[in-house]
Prior knowledge:
With 317 residues, the protein is mostly helical. The chain has two domains: 20-74, no CATH class; 90-316, Orthogonal Bundle (MetI-like fold), CATH 1.10.3720.10. The chain is 79% helix and 0% strand. The chain is built from 15 helices and no strands. The model has no long low-confidence stretch (mean pLDDT 79). It is a multi-pass membrane protein. Belongs to the binding-protein-dependent transport system permease family. This is ABC transporter permease. One of its GO terms (molecular function) is dipeptide transmembrane transporter activity.
Amino acid sequence: MSQLLAKRLAALVATLFATSLIVFLVMAVLPGDPAQIILGIGAQEDTLAALRHELGLDRPLIEQYLLWVGGLLTGDLGESYTYSRPVSELIGQRVLVSLPLAVFAILLSTAIAIPAGVVAAAKHNKAADIGVSALAQIGIAIPNFWFAMLLILFFAVTLGWFPAGGFAGWDEGVLPALRSLLLPAVALALPQAAILTRVTRSAVLEVLGEDHVRTARAKGLTRGAALRRHAVRNALIPVVTIMGLQFSFLLAGTIVIENVFYLPGLGRLLFQAIAQRDLIVVQSLVVLLAGAVVIVNFVVDLTYLVIDPRLRKAVHG
């Protein structure tokens, strides 16, 4: 077990190092001058040079990279060119929106998808299965930003039940904050639930066709009992894999939805930083989000060992 953990941790560190190097090099070769963007097109060359020196942009690339990575390791992410505030402070404020939104969305997605997928598998080729499969296909086909606009039009503009955008803030209370996040969470959750439903259905059907389930049925176990005791648990491994990938996507890929709902989250901060050529914010955000994805996948790998006893036996020997 310890050997497996050491290999996974080594892969995590190597992935983060490669990600930081790629992100830094990509940002370095992109056109645009942060000093020019900050001071405007009418700035004098000596003023631009002074600002580049102050920001450290005139240093060799290798020195810039080492200083930046050293700051990441010590928790000093630098100062934003645009906001003139520590990057860690900006990220700390925005993650209080993006992380609850991602958790809210994955909980909604899981609560919808797993029961729907199990029901579809239990009623294979019947009306329930056909209906669930059709709805899942529609959910996959609809872009989440278009679905988000429909939610705003109906629930915010027409009915007035929820705000059309913005975030109330946790200082206003948990319920107002969650109310602000409900429509964005639904817009994110339903397309993911459609994918997870199809995966759950396929996984449960595959397990129902395995020998140990047929043996249990031959011994007198009902289909429902076989489904509960054998099929669902054994089908969770591919489901957990997809859930991990979806949570990573929801945490790192909410740029469009956060802009549609005007939420001050990490996705919107990344979008603004790219538009303003705020390199230090973009670099730090991308590496931190990549780190979150790698850590989620690491947790998923460990979850396999909890779900499947066969994997625990293989690890121990």
